[in-house]
């Protein structure tokens, strides 16, 4: 396979992925190697409504034991926020691999960040104007 054909295939794959991201439900794959070994899994994220975002806030507060945000270290704040968001946006256990059935049982913060980053990149599409339509309306 020549370089030009390979480059075209990569471009088409990226274009397809971007089209998929514009839907309110988006399935993505994580391949991660770190403290927990090599983990591969598929997740399906659902864009959050304002009601869902309120649920994230409430869940994050419960995960922090109701302790004031000012009293907690940055790692605890970050982890509780990421976990709460993922628990709401990746709703069903069927939408995650077995090793991520309970995000609280993971050990590697970088793994949690990798999943969360993918979710936030998907979410960002619906929080900014679209180049082609000027609005964040997706299919889904």
What would you note in describing this structure?
With 140 residues, this protein is an alpha+beta fold. The chain has a domain at 45-128. Helices cover 47% and strands 14% of the residues. The protein has helices spanning 3-21, 50-63, 74-89, 109-125; strands at residues 25-34, 37-46. Helix 2 (50-63) packs across helix 3 and helix 3 packs across helix 4. It is globular, with a radius of gyration of 17 Å. The N and C termini lie far apart (36 Å). The model is unreliable at 133-140 (pLDDT under 50).
Feature tags:
single chain; 140 residues; alpha+beta; two-stranded antiparallel ribbon; globular; disordered C terminus
SSE topology sketch:
Layout: H1 3-21, E1 25-34, E2 37-46, H2 50-63, H3 74-89, H4 109-125
Antiparallel strand pairs: 1-2
Helix pairs in contact: 2-3, 3-4
Question: What is the C-alpha radius of gyration, as a whole number of Å?
Answer: 17 Å
Q: Strand content of the residues, in percent? A: 5-15%
Would you tell me the overall average pLDDT?
86
The proportion of residues forming helix, as a percent range, comes to 40-55%
Q: Ranges with pLDDT <50 over ≥5 residues?
A: 133-140
Number of helices: 4
Query: Termini, distance in Å?
Result: 36 Å
The string of secondary-structure elements, in order, is HEEHHH
Main sheet record:
2 strands, antiparallel
The number of strands is: 2
Query: Which class best fits the helix and strand makeup?
Result: alpha+beta
Strand order of the largest sheet: 1-2
> What global shape is seen?
globular
């Amino acid at each position: 396979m020549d370089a030009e054909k390979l480059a075209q295939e990569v471009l088409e794959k990226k274009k397809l992925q971007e089209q998929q991201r514009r839907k309110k439900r988006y399935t993505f794959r994580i391949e991660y190697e770190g403290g927990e070994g090599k983990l591969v899994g598929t997740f399906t994220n659902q864009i959050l409504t304002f009601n869902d975002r309120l649920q994230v806030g409430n869940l994050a507060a419960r995960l922090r034991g109701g302790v004031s945000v000012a009293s907690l270290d940055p790692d605890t704040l970050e982890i509780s926020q990421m976990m709460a968001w993922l628990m709401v946006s990746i709703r069903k256990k069927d939408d995650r691999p077995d090793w991520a059935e309970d995000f609280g049982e993971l050990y590697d913060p970088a793994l949690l960040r990798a999943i969360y980053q993918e979710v936030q990149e998907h979410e960002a599409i619906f929080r900014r104007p679209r180049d082609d339509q000027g609005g964040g309306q997706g299919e889904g």
